[in-house]
Design brief:
By secondary structure, chain A is mainly alpha-helical. Helices cover about 50% and strands about 5% of the residues of chain A. In chain A, helix 20 (about 345-380) runs antiparallel to helix 21. Chain B is globular and about 45 Å long. Classes of the chains: A mainly alpha, B mainly alpha. The interface between A and B is medium-sized, with 31 and 28 residues. The structure holds calcium ion (CA) (2 copies).
Chain lengths: ~450, ~160, ~450
């Protein structure tokens, strides 16, 4: 009967090192020679063309399926094209070919999330004067980040070669997960300093209870379980680019992760992405707040990777399945370990949650589109800006909330009640706005006679 | 194996165990067939009705043919096993006598760490890659499951021992 | 210290029959002599005075805490008094002393849920001509039910003696759970015939797949697990009394259990509980739809009894704790059997869900109260009924939805997303109604000049 200790010794030599991986190994294929099983699953993010009721990776044009979006985002690049997302393999290609890049000026900041940008940041840092021996430091990433943010997109695009690569999430020697993206580091510092309770991120709660002398740093303090969600928060978050010339990529987390708190962040900063041409209100376009919505849901203690990169048995070894996609395409591994329930029942529950969200989304968009028309009509009838101020503030807030849920990619599943709550607030505000615009129009007409 | 336990070199350990129990549970220990507590047979645990439910659920679990109670709930290394038995024996008889334990019974941190380490002990070949993703020359000593390696098997596999 | 022997003895002698219990044993104390442990916990429903953040059993006057209710229910008995509910022990006493009974005429139908009415139904059936040998049949309960529904409340009240008793839920010989209340039998027949999917009630789904020749009967078909929820549905449901003289107690389930389907049932029947004196709209007052809301939630496969009458170990024996109350007063037994989570964390999750619901409820009630004022003002300005028809329909529907969630006693916990969805719809409809009423008023004023 081999005892346990002896077997442990044998097992350690399982991961045989074929090739040396260092901080300068930017090509995933090289990492793949040491970790063929993970690499095979990673490369499957190239597959697309499969639909789920509300998700999947058929890159269809959402503006055609949801025409109200063109009215809501009129005057902003997203009025040109907004497609269903697909595998990580495509994220550099898709950005390069979108009309939002080809027909509008964009800053280099986009590449923070749309390329394996670690190499470009380091090179740019050295070019900007950082001593070359510091090239592998976090400081290098920071300096390069600042440089590339400020570049026009086309110029920055020439500095990047690959979509998501192993080095974006893993430390070469230990394979430990680490955060490479400066915007998330800054975002987590803001979050840690806010009062928003984050029970699902205990390392932040512990930091808050400490002396707070050293700013919160996930790479030092976050647990392995937290990292299995934080690495996704490098990109799957709401963001904005600061004013020119810096155009720093910022996550609006100074007040917290909830939608009202992000709006407060923008209000405190007097920020608008653009002014809506018909309604005249100062609007923000919200993008994919997966991390923020997931934080409010019943699965906040379940890591993104638990569902989107689940464990898989391949032969005699258990690995992380790097084929990040809709969990509905892999329910057995993504859900059934924790939920001892039949596949079709689990799918039914998800689709029931998403169907409720979709029904509310449609009504909320109807209300926002009506509000835009009501403000425009009042304005044309001579209503003063002062009279339309309330309606425009309600437009800014209600459209922000509809965006927040509609552009989040789980169609409410990551936090079912919170999604419905946010859409309820959006509807209520939009309808109040319509009323206010009507009053302003009536007053203008009365004054006009 | 059962007979060997009853007859042979067990007296020394039984003395240690009985010593621990001497204070409060002399009479209790006897009536609860404390001596049998020293064996690895799951039937031992079900002497107490409060263990009946976990025994039944174990009999329906995926591990019924591959792991007995002690295989998960007592350290595998020889020394750790008997120290564990002594500590558990003491906790058990105190809790059983005073009836002051939290219900439903939940694994305490010590109990949970033992179980987590045992998952890795038996499944090391399968989970070596995810437990301690260490590579390259000079790999650190393999980190045990639980606190230090940061991965908790029970985060996903809570029901392997007792179904539900 | 002989407790080991004592416990082993207890484990064997569980159910020692002290006294003979028959269909005519209406006194719980007699049952209690055979089942002292269950009886002791049952009698604890007499305790009251403990609050939880949103529930508990301090019978405070809700109309004072939520003044908008008096505006919403103006013209209906609930404008007089509506208190927080408390233990089953009080349900006959509380009904007898409420101003809704002392200052308004009410039918005998109330006693279906506010007394141990089995004995009264049987006696009334025999008095109405049923052969005495049939006194213990379901037919007797039906005949008595019809007779007592039609009686004025005061007369019916003289026929009842006790609040909830063992016989209301248990069959004397086998202690098997059974449904004694005719309204639930009728309700389940309607539900079975509807198209509303009820995956959590498999016996109904199986009946639907059969030849449907014999109407669905829970006492014959329901599983033990289903019964652990259905017995509560005898009373914890939305209901109405049919038109005089019959005043049959009816559960509006012909279209299904969801709020829109119950409204459809009322619309199909052209029903209104009363006409709102200020808004002139045909309104229904919704009462405690626990069973219906729980059916839409993540705990639909968890029985009411699992949380509200959990198993408890007393010595060596496991019994059902009959002290039905807020599970937040007994988290250890109610929740920790399934959720291996600390008590305060579980409580935090419930309160987070309930706080979201409460915030939406307040806004929804604000909107409905504004709508009532808007319709009234338009009416006083001369707007025709025809012009106000849309606003009144929206008032009927939006107030029905706010009632449905506010009067449900878990403050959204039984189905978090569904509760938020319903309140979102209510807000949207109420605001649309306000807009419609304003238009009607403006048109009336324009026509008036
Ligand atoms: Ca944004
Ligand atoms: Ca009603």
């Amino acid at each position: 009967l081999q005892n346990v200790a002896q077997r442990q010794a044998e097992a350690r030599e399982v991961a045989f090192r074929v090739v040396e991986i260092t901080e300068d190994t930017y090509e995933s294929s090289v990492w793949g020679r040491n970790f063929p099983l993970q690499y095979d699953t990673f490369m499957r993010t190239e597959e697309y063309g499969v639909e789920t009721p509300f998700g999947g990776n058929v890159p269809y044009e959402k503006l055609d399926k949801y025409p109200q979006l063109r009215i809501m985002w009129q005057g902003f690049p997203f009025e040109l094209s907004f497609r269903e997302d697909r595998g990580h393999h495509w994220f550099l290609f898709d950005q390069r070919q979108t009309r939002r890049v080809q027909e509008r000026a964009q800053p280099g900041s986009c590449l923070h999330c749309h390329s394996s940008v670690v190499e470009a940041y380091r090179i740019a840092a050295v070019q900007a004067g950082l001593p070359v021996e510091k090239i592998h430091t976090e400081e290098a990433l920071r300096k390069g980040f600042d440089a590339i943010n400020a570049m026009p997109w086309a110029e920055a695009d020439t500095l990047v070669r690959n979509p998501l690569a192993c080095i974006d999430c893993h430390e070469p020697q230990t394979m430990r997960l680490r955060i490479t993206r400066p915007s998330l580091k800054d975002g987590l510092v803001k979050l840690a300093n806010s009062d928003d309770p984050v029970p699902h991120l205990p390392s932040i709660e512990r930091w808050r209870a400490g002396d707070r002398r050293v700013p919160y740093d996930a790479n030092r303090l976050a647990s392995r379980h937290e990292m299995r969600s934080m690495i996704c928060a490098q990109c799957h978050v709401e963001y904005y680019f600061d004013r020119p010339p810096v155009r720093t990529l910022i996550f609006p987390w100074s007040e917290g992760l909830k939608v009202e708190q992000q709006l407060q962040h923008y209000d405190n900063y007097g920020w608008r992405d653009w002014t809506h041409p018909r309604a005249g209100s100062g609007q923000m376009k919200v993008q994919h707040p997966e991390f923020e919505l997931w934080s409010q849901g019943p699965h906040a203690n379940v890591a993104c990777a638990d569902c989107h990169m689940p464990f898989e048995r391949v032969g005699a070894v258990k690995i992380t399945n790097h084929h990040a996609r809709s969990p509905l395409l892999n329910i057995r591994q993504s859900c059934q370990t924790c939920h001892n329930v039949a596949e079709d029942e689990l799918k039914r529950r998800v689709v029931t949650i998403q169907t409720r969200t979709a029904a509310l989304e449609k009504k909320a968009k109807d209300a926002v589109v009506e509000l835009i028309a009501a403000i425009e009509s009042a304005h044309q009838a001579g209503a003063t800006d002062e009279a339309l101020n309330e309606a425009r503030t309600l437009h800014r807030s209600s459209q922000f909330k509809v965006d927040w849920i509609f552009n989040e990619n789980s169609r409410g599943f990551h936090a079912p009640q919170e999604s419905a709550r946010i859409l309820a607030e959006a509807m209520n505000e939009a309808r109040k706005g319509i009323l206010s615009a009507h009053k302003a129009e009536a007053a203008a007409k009365a004054a006009g006679q | 194996m059962r007979d060997w336990l009853m007859g042979g070199g067990i007296l020394l350990v039984a003395a240690l165990f009985l010593g621990l129990m001497a204070g409060a549970g002399a009479f209790t220990a006897d009536r609860a067939q404390a001596l049998s507590y020293l064996s690895d047979d799951p039937q031992v645990c079900v002497n107490c009705h409060v263990m009946r439910e976990v025994h039944t659920s174990w009999e329906r679990s995926s591990h019924r043919n591959v792991a007995r109670c002690v295989d998960c709930h007592l350290p595998h290394d020889p020394v750790g096993k008997w120290v564990g038995k002594a500590i558990d024996g003491w906790n058990h008889s105190v809790a059983f006598t005073l009836q002051n334990f939290h219900e439903p019974i939940q694994l305490k941190p010590r109990g949970r760490a033992i179980v987590e380490q045992n998952c890795v002990n038996c499944h090391i070949d399968l989970v070596h890659g995810i437990v301690h993703a260490r590579t390259g020359a000079g790999a650190h000593a393999s980190l045990p499951a639980g606190k230090r390696s940061g991965i908790s098997c029970l985060h996903c596999h809570l029901d392997v021992g007792h179904g539900q």
